[in-house]
Amino acid sequence: AASPDGRYFATGADDGAVIVWSGKTAPERTLVEMQCPAESRGVRSLHFSDNGELLAGVCNLKLLIWRGRLADGFSLHVVLHRRTKVTAACISPCERYVVTASQDCTIWLWSTRDGECLWIFRDGHSPTTHLLFSPDGRFLASGDKKGIV
């Protein structure tokens, strides 16, 4: 994932490591190294908020939300995704919401404040692999394994 201003990049790995890099010095200099909880190995998707203060990631059955600034460090909020493996995550432009998609063809809307599930959309066609909000946050696009948007 890249922060909107291009200053930071985040990478995730199969061992659960999440690393934030400087856009100017990557890959020589790591800014922050974080770890997914032990039972949540395998980072599948990462997404920065517009101001770079939130980083959402998905690991197995969990939505992970890191909140903070690089200078101060990040705090981790773990949300258990109750159904099947999570495939994608995206933070809304207003930064109050994050959406996730899972292999059971559902899209979930979560509060970034407390991790509460606010809404579930059941698509039923094919598992969603990509999510993206419009810049004004009014629309959400989803793309699935079959290439349907």
List its salient traits:
WD40_repeat_dom_sf, four-stranded antiparallel sheet, WD repeat, Methylamine Dehydrogenase, Chain H, WD40/YVTN_repeat-like_dom_sf, mainly beta
Please state the second-level CATH architecture. 7 Propeller
Question: How many discrete structural domains?
Answer: 1
Which structural class should the secondary elements be placed in? mainly beta
Strand order of the largest sheet: 4-5-6-7
CATH class: Mainly Beta
CA-CA gap between termini: 21 Å
Q: What's the total helix number?
A: 0
Shape descriptor reads globular
Share of β-strand residues: over 45%
Low-confidence spans? none
**CATH fold-level name:** Methylamine Dehydrogenase, Chain H
What percent of the residues sit in helical stretches (DSSP H or I)?
under 10%
Q: Average pLDDT value? A: 83
Assign the CATH superfamily.
YVTN repeat-like/Quinoprotein amine dehydrogenase
Number of strands: 13
Compute the CA-based radius of gyration: 15 Å
Compressed to H and E, one letter per element, the order equals EEEEEEEEEEEEE
SSE topology sketch:
Layout: E1 8-12, E2 17-22, E3 30-35, E4 43-48, E5 54-59, E6 62-69, E7 73-80, E8 86-91, E9 97-102, E10 106-111, E11 117-122, E12 128-133, E13 140-144
Antiparallel strand pairs: 1-2, 2-3, 4-5, 5-6, 6-7, 8-9, 9-10, 10-11, 12-13
InterPro entries: WD40/YVTN_repeat-like_dom_sf, WD40_repeat_dom_sf, WD40_rpt
Protein name: WD40 repeat-like protein
Pfam families: WD40
